[in-house]
């Protein structure tokens, strides 16, 4: 997912922040019969179509608008039951969307400001970023299941005691986290920095990419893991 996320950020970085896209019930845009932002409206339309293509039947996909989905037109697939059924109740997309709008967009956008001719392009790039972040973060469910299976007595004990500090300690692998951040620095240096970029135009930089992963992506993945484990024995 890492390269997908980096390239999605780069695609978003061609545009300014465009706050109008995220404003709830913006008067200028005046979307009929919809309560929410332009981004939400665009995202709901896409999720409705994708639900009919059975996107959200897949255990590695989590919708942002679960209440709006329609039944798939394609027949159901039988996925191997890797996760505990409780996994379907774990959805961090509201949190991911809020953090994306508040903290990530300012780091990856070209500059602060609106650009009405690009609202559609911005919304499609945002949806790509949100979908890839969501998929990566919710893979925490699979990572948590693998960790549970690797030491069932230990995790059973921790879960029964609701020992969040103990679970956190056991699911954390600082060496892996360090490696990820080092790898991201290298990737951003290669993919994300345009040597001809204007000094007042920000693009995805190693510093920002590392910040996004360190402060948001990895911590929320861990939250998903802990949440899944805490409900694993119910
Ligand atoms: O790879 C793991 O073991 C994970 O749990 C995933 C992840 C991550 O989000 O990348 C989260 C926690 C670990 O400390 C290391 C990495």
From TrEMBL:
Pathway(s) this gene product operates in, as recorded in its UniProt entry? Metabolic intermediate biosynthesis; prephenate biosynthesis; prephenate from chorismate: step 1/1
Q: Which InterPro entries match?
A: Chorismate_II_sf, Chorismate_mutase_AroQ_euk, CM_AroQ_sf_eucaryotic, CM_II_prokaryot
Keyword terms: Allosteric enzyme, Amino-acid biosynthesis, Aromatic amino acid biosynthesis, Cytoplasm, Isomerase, Phenylalanine biosynthesis, Tyrosine biosynthesis
- Broad class of enzyme this protein falls into: isomerase
As its record notes, the protein acts as a catalyst of: chorismate = prephenate
> Listed GO cellular component terms?
cytoplasm; nucleus
UniProt subunit comment: Homodimer.
Name of the protein in its database record: Chorismate mutase
Protein source organism: Henningerozyma blattae (strain ATCC 34711 / CBS 6284 / DSM 70876 / NBRC 10599 / NRRL Y-10934 / UCD 77-7)
């Amino acid at each position: 997912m890492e390269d997908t996320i980096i390239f999605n950020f780069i695609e978003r970085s061609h545009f300014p922040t465009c706050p109008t896209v995220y404003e709830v019930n913006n008067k200028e845009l005046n979307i009929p019969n919809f309560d929410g932002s332009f981004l939400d409206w665009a995202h709901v339309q896409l999720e409705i179509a994708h639900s009919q293509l059975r996107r959200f039947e897949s255990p590695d996909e989590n919708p942002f608008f679960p209440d709006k989905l329609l039944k798939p037109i394609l027949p159901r697939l039988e996925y191997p039951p890797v996760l505990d059924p409780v996994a379907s109740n774990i959805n961090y997309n509201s949190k991911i969307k809020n953090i994306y709008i508040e903290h990530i967009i300012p780091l990856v956008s070209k500059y602060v400001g609106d650009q009405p001719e690009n609202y559609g392009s911005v919304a499609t790039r945002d949806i790509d970023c949100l979908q890839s972040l969501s998929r990566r973060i919710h893979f925490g469910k699979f990572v948590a299941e693998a960790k549970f299976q690797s030491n069932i007595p230990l995790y059973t004990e921790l879960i029964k005691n609701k020992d969040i500090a103990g679970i956190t300690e056991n699911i954390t692998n600082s060496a892996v986290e360090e490696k990820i951040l080092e790898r991201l620095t290298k990737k951003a240096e290669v993919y994300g920095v345009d040597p001809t970029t204007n000094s007042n135009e920000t693009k995805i930089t190693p510093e920002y990419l590392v910040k996004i992963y360190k402060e948001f992506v990895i911590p929320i993945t861990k939250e998903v893991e802990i949440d899944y484990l805490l409900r694993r024995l119910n």
